[in-house]
Amino acid sequence: MTVYIVQEVRGRDISSASKYGNLEILLSADQKMENYPVKEIQIFRRKLKDFSDKDFLLLSGDPVAIALATCIACSYNKGRIKFLRWDRQLEVYFKIGARIEEEPHERF
User: Fold this and answer.
1) Which tops the pLDDT comparison, 96 or 108?
2) Rounded CA separation 35/2 (Å)
3) Which helix (H) or strand (E) holds 5?
């Protein structure tokens, strides 16, 4: 199980997400999205090639990077994706799953 952090955010402690898997940062905080993010797409494709139902995306950083990483992870996992969402009040991560290419009411 791996938790893929879309983009590192300086000063944000995400260590509690490690209970859902090994943490892997896709883009560093210093990496800026270009108008034509060819390099970033290549990074996402390489790092997310084994994305499966066991893995999660933690959505942080540039909104375009988040969208691209989500699309690529879905494409590698037959339209299925799981996210970790931070609840500020409870200070815990919650799992959210979605199926993009199948009936949305089905769970996995």
Assistant:
1) 96
2) 29
3) strand 2-7
